Write a sequence for this structure.
């Protein structure tokens, strides 16, 4: 038994975030879009770090609070558990890395930023701190870059072992202990192979408690359907320009990554009130529930929904936390979301991992041809 324990420890050594990782680190600015986009990029970045076998430095989430001119950086563990991520791969929060490890492994005066090629701004190098959120993100940690490195023609396709080899040969950790990327080392939307990594994105105890409190106070801990309404004017304008069948934002989650499950339509992107009411009414009947939780960026349609279903309780949170909305939607007994929205995509991935049912506005899976 003792020999077996020694073998197991040798094969699966424990990770100590206080000790410098000799295999190096990956850090990046989650500088594209709001939370849904950043979450897509996080999964890809997590896969990238594991594939090239470096510790992932968990960046804060970038949030925008207009009319404030600069972004806010919210620590990763405000919303999610670090220990859950570590079950998949070595990771450490950016706050901890910069405080305890950076002075030794990534000191000031010796910091290089990585980008594919020269900046579009015309400035030399990557110009990694140009504009918001880039500047405020790195400034939060007093990070200035002393050099730029163009990694062209390398790609983030690290499912390809040849590409992993190229990364490790070109940037050995002895010379480049930290790969600091101007943007996420990941594709958008999240690659199909990385969807399963959602299981390692687990809500913090604080968010979990707030979600459960809301379910108790608003829904009496009864069964409920969760719906996401993406009805803002920005989405309305974007959806007007959809060419039937073309992918947009998170749409591969419903139409498939090769369009094999159907074509994207404007109604799927921005459903009419009638479509929403009809679909909710059908779901309430099929699932046999009398509660509906609504997360929305704009109109909530509660008055119209109540008129159509007077016996159903429609609820939404009193505050404006998108993360509480997400957590509550994830716990629902059934979910209806927007095919194109990365916010809905986060919920869908979480529910897929848990084996829970979901559907999208105005979308039906094509019937399989009978053999």
């Amino acid at each position: 038994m003792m020999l077996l324990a020694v073998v197991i420890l040798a094969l699966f050594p424990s990770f100590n975030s206080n000790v410098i990782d000799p295999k190096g680190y990956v850090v990046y600015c989650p500088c594209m879009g709001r939370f849904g986009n950043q979450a897509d990029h996080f999964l890809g970045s997590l896969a990238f770090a594991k594939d090239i076998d470096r510790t992932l430095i968990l960046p804060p989430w970038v949030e925008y609070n207009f009319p404030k001119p600069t972004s806010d950086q919210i620590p990763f563990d405000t919303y999610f558990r670090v220990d859950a991520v570590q079950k998949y791969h070595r990771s450490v929060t950016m706050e901890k890395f910069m405080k305890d490890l950076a002075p030794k492994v990534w000191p000031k005066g010796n910091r290089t930023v990585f980008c594919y090629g020269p900046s579009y701004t015309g400035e030399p190098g990557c110009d990694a701190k140009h504009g918001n959120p880039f500047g405020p993100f790195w400034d939060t940690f007093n990070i200035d870059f002393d050099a730029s490195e163009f990694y062209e023609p390398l790609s983030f396709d690290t499912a390809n072992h040849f590409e992993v080899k190229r990364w490790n040969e070109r940037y050995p950790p002895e010379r480049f202990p930290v790969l600091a990327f101007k943007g996420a080392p990941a594709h958008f939307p999240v690659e199909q192979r990385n969807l399963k990594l959602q299981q390692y994105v687990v809500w913090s105890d604080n968010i979990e408690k707030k979600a459960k409190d809301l379910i108790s106070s608003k829904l009496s801990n009864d069964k409920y359907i969760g719906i996401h309404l993406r009805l803002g004017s920005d989405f309305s304008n974007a959806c007007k320009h959809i060419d039937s069948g073309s992918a947009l934002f998170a749409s591969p989650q419903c139409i498939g990554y090769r369009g094999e499950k159907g074509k994207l339509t404007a109604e799927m992107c921005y459903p009419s009130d009638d479509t929403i009411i009809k679909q909710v009414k059908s779901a309430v009947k099929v699932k046999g529930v009398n509660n509906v939780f609504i997360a929305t960026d704009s109109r909530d349609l509660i008055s119209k929904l109540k008129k159509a279903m007077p016996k159903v309780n429609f609820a939404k949170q009193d505050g404006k936390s998108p993360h509480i909305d997400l957590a509550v939607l994830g716990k629902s007994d059934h979910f209806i979301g927007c095919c194109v929205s990365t916010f809905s995509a986060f919920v869908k991935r979480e529910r897929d991992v848990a084996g829970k049912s979901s559907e999208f506005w105005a979308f039906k899976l094509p019937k399989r041809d009978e053999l």
Observations:
- The chain has 14 helices and 13 strands.
